[in-house]
Design goal:
Shape: globular
Order of helices and strands: HEHHEHHHEHHHH
Radius of gyration: 21 Å
Helix content: over 70%
Largest sheet: 3 strands, mixed
Strand content: under 5%
Number of strands: 3
Distance between the termini: 42 Å
Strand order of the largest sheet: 2-1-3
Structural class: mainly alpha
């Protein structure tokens, strides 16, 4: 085991990327560079506007600022390396770099998950209990929700990386992905992966599936309350606002669950790359 790990540390991983076709690399480079710049500008402006404007110092915008900052960091973990690999012939990444990328990717992804749930709760309280909104979404509650999101996400990520670091990899270090993702790396392991897959299906369920189910449950109550609003314009505004948020939430959680909550033996690299693009590039933008 130790010899295998030492060998793995000295042998870099090769990220095969989204495609190996030279004709597709330039269009993909332009597309994802554009999406990345748009995402950086959008999320950066949201954070800056909320920070400098006193009118936006409210719980809803406090949560939105943290979500936008997490999204900004989330895309920066994977997209710059992907863009560099589309330009360069050397697509290698060390084991330490790979594990570091995985750590922050998982941490920021789970932070997104928890903050999306917190924002849905904020919307639920605002519509269902408007008279008690100030007490139920006080600054203490908001700070606790945000602090818990960041804490839980890093603990979750640390558990995964500690397990991955103890495993040994096979002679093949070619990763059929554009970053060091969980499922492609598990396919390269020559160690027993039962423990880490059990962690995915148990502890992972707590930080991904549970917030998703809470969001869906909250939206049922929100939809019922919206339909009871006396104003047609008010109903239309609320439905459009909540509908766009629910669409992003469904795309984010749907692709995450489809990629990670399946046995490694059933993982398809091409489908996994497409689904991963959805929650790493599209939804954060």
């Amino acid at each position: 085991m130790e010899a295998a790990n030492e060998s793995s540390e000295g042998t870099p991983f090769i990220l095969l990327g989204l495609t190996t076709s030279p004709g597709q690399q330039r269009p993909l480079l332009v597309l994802f560079l554009l999406l990345y710049v748009v995402g950086l500008l959008r999320n950066g402006l949201i954070v800056a506007a909320i920070r400098v404007s006193p009118a936006l110092h409210a719980p809803m915008y406090f949560l939105l600022a943290h979500l936008s900052f997490a999204d900004l960091c989330f895309t920066s973990i994977t997209v710059p390396k992907m863009l560099a690999n589309l330009l360069a012939h050397d697509r290698s990444i060390s084991l330490a770099g790979c594990l570091t990328q995985m750590y922050f990717f998982f941490a920021l992804g789970v932070t997104d998950s928890c903050l999306l749930a917190a924002m849905t709760y904020d919307c639920y309280v605002a519509i269902q209990h408007p008279l008690h909104y100030a007490t139920r979404m006080s600054w203490a509650v908001c700070t606790a929700l945000v602090g818990m999101a960041w804490l839980v996400s890093h603990v979750h990520s640390l558990l995964h990386i500690l397990l991955m670091a103890r495993l040994s990899f096979s002679a093949s270090h070619q990763v059929p992905h554009f970053f060091c993702d969980h499922q492609p790396l598990l396919r390269l392991l020559c160690s027993d992966t039962r423990h880490i897959q059990l962690l995915i299906f148990t502890e992972g369920t707590t930080v991904v599936v549970t917030p998703f189910l809470l969001i869906l449950t909250s939206y049922r109550a929100i939809a019922a309350a919206v339909l009871q609003l006396p104003s047609a314009s008010g109903r239309l505004w609320a439905m459009s606002t909540c509908g766009s948020h629910l669409a992003v939430v469904s795309l984010f959680y749907g692709t995450v669950i489809a990629v990670y909550f399946q046995p490694t033996s059933r993982y398809e690299a091409e489908q996994g790359r497409v689904a991963t693009v959805m929650y790493t590039v599209v939804t954060p933008c």
